[in-house]
């Protein structure tokens, strides 16, 4: 596996030194830029490929928000996750950043553990997206004739694989797969295994999340619990219905990416799925059943 390359952008050399010190020893290859102009030069170079950008919001010249918009408008760069660091984190500023594509936030000053945790979360999400894209490429034509199907699964690995398979029937599978993966994984971890938002945040910060998922899957009370995905086709749309056997959750709190959760290492999946992957997303009852609709293109 190639070394992770991170572009760090801040107009204060002292802040660049601090971030370098905090990430030292993690095996990352760091490229420092002291301005938005310098960062854009690095990003646009054909021989440069970055896995993550840590970006200061307030800079002279090209500020962080403007650079973020340029990055997200470039198809070659748009999938690079961006961590926005800011000294002022009002809800309005966070919403502005979220709208531009910054889904990870750090408030200055920050502790080493906070930086390391959000970096791990952003990279984990990136690796998951890339793995799903690879699966999707192999399964693109597998279900083109499907009219109705029901699938039952219980593990995270099964959720990711099924997301890639089911998304392959859609016109834009690389977009739909991200949303489906979020919903199917939620059915396992938050639904059947009852891992709440705060608990997942703590587990991810401690690097114990995967181990806890495996532990709970092995418990006798969870071994017969399944999440079910129903896929149905009508003349205008594909409809995906996901139902788990958990007690539900307050789903209304997660349809939008609230500013107060922008600084957490998790909790953004449902909002991003609703915003980016589906034409309609509707939770039913206590939240253990969700229906996602993807309209078909007219051919």
TrEMBL record:
PANTHER family: RESPONSE REGULATORY DOMAIN-CONTAINING PROTEIN, STRESS RESPONSE REGULATOR PROTEIN 1. InterPro entries: Bact_response_regulator, CheY-like_superfamily, HATPase_dom, Sig_transdc_resp-reg_receiver. GO terms for biological process: phosphorelay signal transduction system. The modification 4-aspartylphosphate is found at residue 56. SUPFAM superfamilies: CheY-like. Keywords: Phosphoprotein. This is Response regulator. It comes from the Bacteria. It comes from Denitromonas halophila. Pfam families: HATPase_c_2, Response_reg. Residues 5-123 form the Response regulatory domain.
């Amino acid at each position: 596996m190639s070394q992770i390359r991170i572009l760090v952008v801040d107009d204060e050399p002292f802040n660049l030194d601090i971030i370098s010190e905090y990430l030292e020893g993690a095996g990352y290859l760091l490229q420092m830029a002291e301005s938005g102009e310098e960062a854009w030069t690095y990003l646009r170079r054909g021989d440069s490929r970055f896995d993550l950008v840590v970006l200061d919001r307030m800079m002279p010249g090209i500020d962080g928000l403007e650079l973020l918009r340029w990055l997200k408008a470039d198809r070659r760069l748009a999938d690079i996750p961006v961590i926005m660091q800011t000294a002022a984190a009002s809800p309005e500023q966070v919403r502005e950043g979220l709208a531009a594509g910054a889904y990870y936030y750090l408030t200055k000053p920050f502790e080493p553990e906070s930086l390391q945790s959000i970096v791990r979360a952003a990279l984990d999400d990136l690796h998951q997206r890339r793995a799903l894209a690879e699966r999707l490429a192999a399964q693109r034509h597998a279900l083109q004739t499907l009219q109705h199907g029901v699938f039952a699964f219980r593990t995270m690995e099964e959720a990711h694989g099924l997301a890639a398979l089911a998304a392959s029937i859609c016109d834009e599978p690389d977009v739909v797969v991200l949303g489906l993966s979020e919903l199917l994984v939620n059915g396992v971890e938050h639904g059947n295994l009852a891992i709440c938002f705060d608990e997942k945040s703590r587990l991810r910060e401690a690097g114990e999340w995967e181990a806890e998922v495996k532990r709970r899957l092995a418990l006798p009370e969870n071994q017969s619990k399944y999440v079910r995905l129903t896929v149905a086709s009508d003349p205008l749309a594909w409809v995906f219905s996901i139902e788990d056997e958990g007690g539900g959750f307050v789903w209304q709190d997660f349809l939008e990416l609230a500013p107060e959760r922008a600084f957490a290492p998790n909790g953004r999946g449902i909002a991003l799925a609703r915003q980016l992957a589906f034409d309609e997303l509707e939770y039913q009852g206590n939240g253990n059943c969700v229906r996602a609709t993807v309209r078909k293109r007219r051919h």
